[in-house]
Each structure stands twice: as structure tokens, then as C-alpha cells.
Amino acid sequence: MLKIRLARYGAKKRPYYRIVVADARAPRDGRYVEKIGTYNPMLPKTDENRVKLLEDRVKYWLGQGAQPTRRVENFLAALGLVEGQTYNNPNKAKPSEKTLERQKEKEEKLAAAKEAEAEAAAAPAEEAPAEEAVAEEAPAEKAAAEEAPAEEAAAEEAPAEDGKKEDDAA
Question: Which of 7, 42, 43, 52 could be cross-linked to 47 through a Cys-Cys bond (beta carbons 3.0 to 4.6 Å apart)?
Fold first, then answer.
């Protein structure tokens, strides 16, 4: 089976394609039967040199049963050589399963937060004792926090003294 397809040439990040007639089993850039045009995607879409085709050879190969790929079919449709088909992929716009899971988790978190706010607004009398308990715990935490820097300072001074002793011994 013959295909009318693109064969990539050009440098890295500077693609240039030949439109070729090739056996469907041949490699993309491998052996081909005939070169029937070129495609340069680096040129603007309005440039006449972006797609060049030998129309008489395209008609000949289509008559011989060669099947164009979708991209080449679009080029041929633009020139009026074949009828262009419209392809529809209804799943393209659908979010993936992971995205749906993330959205569901986010909605659950928002619902939980709203419930917590509703409970907090419904029971303001219960919060007052809780605030007092927090206030009582705060001085104990401050005292622990004040002790911790003193311990860290002592730990920092000790290695410095050891280092001086080693320097003196050497």
C-alpha cells in the first residue's frame, strides 16, 4: 500500500519536510518512491512557499490508490485536489481522571471548611472556654521557647571552644 506522507529533513528545531509517496512499511525518513512536494512549517501560513506540490503527480498517485495521511490530506484539500474530512475527537476536551479526582478532593475540602465555619458560628458560647485554655497554655509555651535558645547558644559555644583547643595543640 502506498502512502502520501511527510518525510522530515532539516536541522534540530528547524524542521523541513518533503511530501513523498512511499510504501507504508518503509521508515518515515527512509526510502520513498517519489518526491512530490515540500512543506516548510517555519514560514508564515500566508507564505506561498510554505507548501509546494506537483499537482499533476499528486493526481497521478491518488489515481494509483495512494492514501494521503491526515496532514497531507489537509494540504490537498486546501488546493482543492481532494475533499477534506473533518475529524472530531469528543474526548479531547474532557478532563483526565486525575484532574477529576483533584477537583473532587478540592470540593470536599471546601465543604468541610464550610461545615466547620457553620459549626463555629452556631456555637459561640462553647468557644470562650476553649480560648481560655489556649491562653493558659501560651505562657508555658513561651517559657519553653525561652529555654530553647539558651540551650542552642550553649551548644554553639562548646564546639567553638573545642576548635580553639585543637588549633592550640597543633
Answer: 43
Question: Are residues 67 and 102 both part of a single domain?
Answer: no
Amino acid identity for residue 84 in this structure? G
The model carries a pTM of 0.52
The answer to whether residue 167 is domain-embedded is no
Could you give the CA distance from residue 92 to residue 101 in angstroms, rounded to a whole number? 18
In a domain, 84, yes or no: no
**Mean pLDDT value across residues 67-92:** 85
Of the ranges 5-19, 71-85, 87-101, the best mean pLDDT one: 5-19
Of the pLDDT bands very low, low, confident and very high (cuts 50, 70, 90), residue 118 is confident
User: 58: closest CA among 30, 35, 74, 39?
Assistant: 35
Per-residue confidence (pLDDT) for residue 159, from 0 to 100: 55
Based on the domain organization, do 75 and 129 belong to the same domain? no
Residue 4 contacts by C-beta under 8 Å, 6 or more apart in sequence? Answer: 19, 20, 21, 36, 58, 61, 62, 66, 67, 68, 69, 72, 76
Domain ranges, residue 24: 2-79
